């Protein structure tokens, strides 16, 4: 395990133009506009909706434009465009900027360019699933070693507000959107946790999605999941120095699992980090997350003891396979963060008999394989959301005798109905599992809102039955 840890080289503020368009004025976009205004740049801000953020930016000197449709005149005089990460490459703004030869990037790239000499190193995490868990595990390891750190990026404080903060090293979660809109961003080390079809409507293809993820290795050090064929294939195409992790017995130069322990085999002798049973949340996918975090922490010189202590004391993030109620021998589990089939598979694999609550926006991803694999575990299925019919059709093909209820309705109210229907099916020993395999925005403000509504409905039902 590496023991050297030197300050990072600074970015290049000259790579940020004088006149910019910031497209999107939510958290990331507003943060970018604020920082650019502080630096004396000329900033134009576009959003489809007026808001307090837009008005505050206007008061600070930004030229704010609210319009339902993008007007190409917004690019007049603009040298660079800072896009909120949700804008896909085919969006009219992105297409017009590309046609005009205007450089386009997003908030993490801006933060990278504005880093000052001696700024914190970045250890970055991406993948289809497990990013937040791994990033927060990594931050816990860094903090346990006495390093000044934070978990940032796609979580927490915007990077542009924190990249020059009082940190030695930061744990950075990066989405495929953010990585697509980057060109100079080059973390000290980056991990790709796994790859499965997701956001295909945004990227256009799985290959484009995977290539966006590979940008996390631009700094020259790659942490690779050796158990994921798609990640391995991607790793074979990189020139970066590769450290692999596996849930199997590791070879020399790898992290892995041996005799029930997480093990580092990158040094002269294998070193045990902690027991598999110490990893929370439970599940082999989270053991893989812990191994990835450990491999990244090693690049910051964190000792094995600190890594193990951090994992034993780690408090899981909410909405990730968390039991929110338990009564009558039935566990109610909130896994609302499972916004794609790959994530839902990890939770479905963890339980023996399941009343499955699923549905939402599938984002163009096929759910057939997930249903075929886990239908034998299901007691019943309760389906909600925009693409519930697609899941129902797959269940009809693979489990024609399974009780399936498809519910209409939105927000918290539908979860009351979900809880009542689930209670009618569940038997002692069952798990009522909210693992939607789909995004939440068709019905809820976020996956967190969806999970909170499920938990509240489950608890209310149990409390009502106890009266």
Count of strand segments: 20
What sort of overall outline do the alpha carbons produce when their principal axes are compared?
A: globular
CATH architecture of the largest domain: 3-Layer(aba) Sandwich
User: What is the CATH homologous superfamily assignment of the largest domain?
Assistant: Mur-like, catalytic domain
How confident overall, as mean pLDDT? 93
Structural class, judged by helices and strands? alpha/beta
Determine and state the CATH class of the largest domain. Alpha Beta
Radius of gyration: 23 Å
* Chain oligomer state: single chain
Characterise the protein shown here.
Helix 5 (131-144) crosses helix 12 and helix 16 crosses helix 17. The chain has 467 residues and is an alpha/beta fold. The termini are far apart. The chain is built from 17 helices and 20 strands. The model is unreliable at 1-7 (pLDDT under 50). The chain folds into three domains: 18-105, 3-Layer(aba) Sandwich (Rossmann fold); 115-312, Mur-like, catalytic domain (UDP-N-acetylmuramoyl-L-alanine:D-glutamate ligase, 3-Layer(aba) Sandwich), CATH 3.40.1190.10; 322-466, Protein-Tyrosine Phosphatase, Chain A (Alpha-Beta Complex). Helix 10 (229-235) links the parallel strand 10 and strand 11 (241-245). The strands form three sheets. The chain has a nine-stranded mixed sheet, sandwiched between helices. The chain is globular, with a radius of gyration of 23 Å. The longest helix has 20 residues, at 447-466.
């Amino acid at each position: 395990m590496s023991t050297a840890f030197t300050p990072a080289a600074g970015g290049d503020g000259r790579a940020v133009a004088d006149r910019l368009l910031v497209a999107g004025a939510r958290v990331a976009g507003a943060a970018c506009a604020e920082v650019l205004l502080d630096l004396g740049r000329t900033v134009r801000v576009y959003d489809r909706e007026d808001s307090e953020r837009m008005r505050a930016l206007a008061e600070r000197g930004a030229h704010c434009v609210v319009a339902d449709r993008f007007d190409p005149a917004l690019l007049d005089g603009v040298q660079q465009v800072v896009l909120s990460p949700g804008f896909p490459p085919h969006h009219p703004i992105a297409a017009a900027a590309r046609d005009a030869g205007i450089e386009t990037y997003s908030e993490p790239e801006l933060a990278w360019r504005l880093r000052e000499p001696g700024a914190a190193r970045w250890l970055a995490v991406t993948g289809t699933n497990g990013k937040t868990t791994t990033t927060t595990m990594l931050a816990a390891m860094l903090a346990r070693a006495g390093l000044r750190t934070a978990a940032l990026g796609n979580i927490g404080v915007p990077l542009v507000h924190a990249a020059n903060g009082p940190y030695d090293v930061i744990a950075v979660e990066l989405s495929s959107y953010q990585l697509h809109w980057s060109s100079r961003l080059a973390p000290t080390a980056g991990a790709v946790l796994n790859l499965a079809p997701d956001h295909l409507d945004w990227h256009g293809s799985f290959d484009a999605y995977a290539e966006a993820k590979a940008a996390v290795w631009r700094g020259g050090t790659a942490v690779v999941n050796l158990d994921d064929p798609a990640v391995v294939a991607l790793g074979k195409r990189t020139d970066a120095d590769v450290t692999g992790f596996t849930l199997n017995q590791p070879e020399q130069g790898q992290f892995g699992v041996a005799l029930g322990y997480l093990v580092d085999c990158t040094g002269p002798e294998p070193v045990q980090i902690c027991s598999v049973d110490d990893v929370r949340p439970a599940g082999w996918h989270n053991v893989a997350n812990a191994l990835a975090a450990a491999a990244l922490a090693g690049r910051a010189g964190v000792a094995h003891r600190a890594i193990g202590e951090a994992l034993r004391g780690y408090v899981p993030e909410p909405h990730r396979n968390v039991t929110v109620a338990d009564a009558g021998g039935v566990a109610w589990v909130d896994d609302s963060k499972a916004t794609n089939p790959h994530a839902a598979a990890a939770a479905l694999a963890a339980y023996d008999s399941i009343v499955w609550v699923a549905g939402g926006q599938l984002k163009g991803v096929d759910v057939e394989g997930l249903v075929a694999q886990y239908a034998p575990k299901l007691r019943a299925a309760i389906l909600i959301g925009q693409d519930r019919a697609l899941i129902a059709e797959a269940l009809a093909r693979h489990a024609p005798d399974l009780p399936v209820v498809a519910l209409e309705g939105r927000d918290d109210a539908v979860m009351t109905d979900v809880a009542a229907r689930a209670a009618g099916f569940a038997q002692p020993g069952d798990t009522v599992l909210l693992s939607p395999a789909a995004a939440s925005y068709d019905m809820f403000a976020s996956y967190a809102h969806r999970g909170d509504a499920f938990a509240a409905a489950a608890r209310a039902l149990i409390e009502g039955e106890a009266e």
